[in-house]
Amino acid sequence: MAAAMFVVRLGEQIAYEFAAAQQYIANAVYYDSQTLPRLAAFFYAQAIEERNHAMMMVRYLLDADAHVAIPGVDAPETEFGDIVAPVSLALEQEKRVSDQVAALMGVAREEGDFQSEQFMQWFLKEQLEEVSSMSSLLAVVQRSSDAPMFVEDYLVRERSGGGEADPTAPPAAGGAL
Fold it and tell me: What is the model's pTM?
């Protein structure tokens, strides 16, 4: 069974993951409204990924026979001044989530909850990839803010693979939909 403090903090993290999914939907809708379909598709996919992260955490709590409460989230930011703002917001969000995941790992370690610590290791690896990816995208968007089609071309070139599922990822509640 997971340590009580870890369960509480993981429940909070579930809210952060759902909030991130909502923010990414808002980012995608903004880009859709700007007729930037590749940026929109990128953020729609990111939203699904964040939702699945939350559902992985839900599955872990269910498997650990812990109480699961699905939290509400605040409304996402929906007004952006330019095409750089949503990516900049996303990078800050990914950095914040990285800190939150590291703190969760710390709680598990402090509580001697080795199973929960092991569970969080995948998320640490995932966050390194997320911050790196968003940092690269931000650099491209900043350089190309006056010519957004260059960003669209970049995404076609760099993100056109189907992206196979990570076999080391924890299972999600309800399956990875």
Answer: 0.91
